Amino acid sequence: MDKADAGGQAETAHITILRPDDWHLHLRDGGLLSGVLPESIRHFARALVMPNLQPPVVTARDALNYRKRIESALPPESGFSPLMTLYLTESTDPEDVAAAHGDGVITAVKLYPAGATTHSESGVREVHRVMPVLERMAGIGCPLCVHGEVPDSDVDVFDRESVFIENVLDPLRREIPDLRIVLEHVTTAEGVDYVGGGGDSLAATITVHHLLINRNHILAGGIRPHYYCLPVAKRERHRLALREAAVSGHPRFFLGTDSAPHCVADKETAKGCAGVFTATNAVPCVAQVFEDEGSLGTLEAFLSLNGAAFYGLPTNHSTITLTRQHEPASFPACIGTTAGPVVVFDPGIDIYWTVA
Ligand code: NCD
Ligand code: ZN
Asked: I need a surface site. Which of 124, 137, 220, 329 has the fewest CB within 10 A?
């Protein structure tokens, strides 16, 4: 880390770190895919690509075909590797999963409780029905990524993560302790505590937007649909717990942006879609959070080391250099895609970091 002057972190001018990975990304398909892909490959070397397309990516063959579509949308020699996931359904074949993992077609399997989020209708209603798949995955070391919310209409939307941990995740971990699990986009202090104390087989991704916004940002002084995502941002104390976990250097917390593009028309409507699009400014925003927490020293662990270690993958070789400017950086408000415009996350604070 070079410093422009001797003194505090605010004067740090440049930081070079191994190229980051995004451990939770929605790339979509077709016109949205080609529109949003350049935003992720600018800063990230790899991304764990979510399978909630319509129809979802449920078989090894689907994952292979989807990977080919992503690869054909990449510019030549981009150096970017999409890491594929399978969408777990109650009819997923354990042997198909084992073969896909063994062949390197998939990196993980994603569990969506049916009805919990965007395009989760084909997900899991009863976890006991997918036990044979999960047991097979534990046996071969294939990680399970979970959308950690119960979809039940009688559970308050702000409590759905804590209820999931208590009623679904904890019993599952007791039943299959060897299964490697990532609690995706953790949003609560309870989730952070559970993962922090959970042992080597449990990790969590943290998004950019949950480090920066709480539920007031969505609801106070006018409703802001571009801050609406699932799991929904919680109270301030939860945001503070997420920031503490992210900057702690704890090896089982790492970045998964959950960058989830939806066209403006699908967000700014009477029943808007859940999802925040952060691919464009994710890395600068995270750097700002770490600077503001006085923790630039753990930035590389969160962005570039911890996730790869948990997934048992080598770290990247290439690097990126972040520069701290004197003036706030500017990011596009919106990106154009052939499917329609997508609004870029507004961090709501000045971001002084850019990536060369
Ligand atoms: C995601 C999407 O749009 O696909 N939306 C979201 O609010 N995060 C789905 C998901 O990860 O829950
Ligand atoms: Zn997601």
From this structure: 220
Ligand nearest to the CA of 52: 1
The residue contributing the CA closest to ligand 1 atom 5 is 275
- Beta carbons of 70 and 49 less than 8 angstroms apart: yes
- In this structure, what token pair is assigned to residue 219? 């609801």
The first and second tokens of residue 294, run together, are 């006085």
User: pLDDT for 215-269, tens place per residue?
Assistant: 999 999 999 999 999 999 999 999 999 999 999 999 999 999 999 999 999 999 9
pLDDT at residue 12 in the model: 58
pLDDT beyond 70 at 157: yes
Q: Could you tell me where the DSSP H helices lie in 176-281?
A: 189-196, 208-212, 215-219, 236-247, 264-267
Cβ-based neighbours of 356, under 8 Å, separated by 6 or more: 320, 321, 322, 323
Residue with CA at minimum distance from ligand 1 atom 6: 275
